[in-house]
Automatic annotation (TrEMBL):
Keywords, sorted A to Z: Acyltransferase, Transferase
An annotated Gene Ontology molecular function: acyltransferase activity
EC number: 2.3.-.-
EC top class, as a word: transferase
Protein's name according to its UniProt entry: GNAT family N-acetyltransferase
PANTHER family tied to this protein: RIBOSOMAL N-ACETYLTRANSFERASE YDAF-RELATED, RIBOSOMAL-PROTEIN-SERINE ACETYLTRANSFERASE
SUPFAM superfamilies registered for this protein in UniProt: Acyl-CoA N-acyltransferases (Nat)
Any Pfam family the entry gives: Acetyltransf_3
Residues covered by the N-acetyltransferase domain: 10-167
Source organism: Lentibacillus kimchii
Keyword match Repeat: no
Amino acid sequence: MFNIKVNENISLKLLEKKDTNELFALVNESRNYLREWLPWVDNMKQETDYEPMIEMWLKQFASNDGFQAGILYKGKMVGMVGFHGIDWSNSKTSIGYWLSEGYQGNGIMTETVRALVNIAFTEYKLNRIEIRCGVKNRKSKGVPERLGFKQEGIIRDAEYLYDHFHDCILYSILSREWV
Ligand SMILES: CC(C)(COP(=O)(O)OP(=O)(O)OC[C@H]1O[C@@H](n2cnc3c(N)ncnc32)[C@H](O)[C@@H]1OP(=O)(O)O)[C@@H](O)C(=O)NCCC(=O)NCCS
């Protein structure tokens, strides 16, 4: 069973079909808040919408292409984190994340992303990790900034959010910079 301990309170688990209800409930209760920065929220309208996603994420893990994991805080699912695939030719990946609204402000995501960076550099032995954050997404930018990622530049109109494009900051860290 895939279970990564981040610290005493936080662990990560691969999502399975039986997690569908919990995942749906989590997104549903934070829908308006998540919608501000995540483009997929309106596509996930009912529990069954998660089944093909979870299947796809399990295949991703089985194909050695990274993974998507549920974040458990004191045993309760509070969000997700994952690698957007792995570019083995160029030895790099990128990380995405979201947290339920009520669990912000405790350092949960910073510690979780720290664990993913460790996995990427020590287990996958990659060279480079990217994180993209909306230019105005202060809380999201805080995660790579606290972990020492470098800001490389701004990707203009990087993502379409329901009715508008928005610019993203590209952050990165290299294995030789991670101590
Ligand atoms: C982005 C997101 C995960 C950030 O959540 P967050 O709670 O701010 O991040 P962390 O869990 O790392 O917590 C950091 C906050 O906790 C505080 N904190 C408390 N204890 C801490 C600790 N031990 N370590 C680090 N930070 C701690 C920090 O000061 C910071 O608060 P601040 O922003 O007021 O300074 C969350 O806002 C979210 O999911 N937003 C919607 C989706 C989204 O934007 N996803 C990212 C798309 S790129």
